[in-house]
Design a protein that fits this description.
With about 55 residues, this protein is mostly helical. It has one domain. The protein has 2 helices and no strands.
Amino acid sequence: DLPRYKVSGLVQASHILRDVPGIGFVEFDSTDVVRSRIVQRIIDAYEKETDKL
């Protein structure tokens, strides 16, 4: 886990590489999870925490 003030390398890479031809990013949320309710709950918890930042 990263300290709150530290930017994730994945987030940084997505910003830097977003407009590079041939590179794409797919972002999922809890509505994309159809097999496991617990995974949906985990994603929801992370999204709530991210909203606080």
